[in-house]
């Protein structure tokens, strides 16, 4: 299953990518995040493997995330015409996914974030979920992006929004 979602953020690209890359901010915008801890490497750098635990309603997902691309490696002084790339793979029980994020300048104070998502399912149950509910995966990706936008633009913290 593959899909692409995008959103515009009312911040300069360099500031948006710095917020996105900072692990201290992840719990503020990544709804359902229970744990994100590096197992090897430096957080956010290519090759780093991290243990990820997400809570979605009554369901808990645990997997291993590997950073497969981050360009440029230094998020300061990014040339205007360049595209920022954040790619990662996540492997969990019966599932493999790849997320390929691209951040470009949509204007002097605006960032366009385009996220390509791909899922492969190993178990029959997860294949069935993917076939019957593909919109749920797209909806969750869009919600994460909207939560990041609200955090980046207005300082909203998903942990403070109950319900």
TrEMBL record:
Q: What is this protein called?
A: SRPBCC family protein
Q: What is the lineage of its organism?
A: Bacteria, Bacillati, Actinomycetota, Actinomycetes, Kitasatosporales
Checking CDD domains in the record gives:
SRPBCC
Q: Which Gene3D superfamilies match?
A: 3.30.530.20
**Which Pfam family is one of this chain's hits?**
Polyketide_cyc2
Record's superkingdom?
A: Bacteria
Q: Which InterPro entries match?
A: Polyketide_cyclase/dehydratase, START-like_dom_sf
């Amino acid at each position: 299953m593959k899909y692409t979602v995008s959103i515009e953020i009312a911040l300069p690209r360099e500031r948006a990518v710095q917020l996105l890359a900072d692990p201290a901010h992840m719990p503020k915008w990544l709804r359902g995040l229970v744990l994100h801890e590096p197992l090897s490497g430096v957080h956010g750098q290519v090759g780093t493997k991290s243990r990820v635990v997400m809570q979605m309603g009554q369901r808990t997902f645990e997997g291993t995330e590997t950073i497969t691309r981050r360009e440029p490696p230094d998020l300061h002084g990014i040339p205007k015409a360049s595209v920022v790339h954040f790619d990662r793979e996540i492997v969990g029980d019966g599932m493999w996914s790849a997320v390929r994020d691209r951040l470009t300048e949509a204007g002097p104070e605006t960032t366009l974030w385009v996220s390509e998502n791909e899922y492969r399912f190993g178990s029959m149950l997860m294949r069935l979920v993917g076939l019957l509910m593909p919109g749920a995966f797209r909806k969750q990706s869009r919600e994460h992006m909207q939560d990041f936008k609200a955090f980046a633009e207005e300082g909203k913290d998903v942990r403070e929004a109950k319900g």
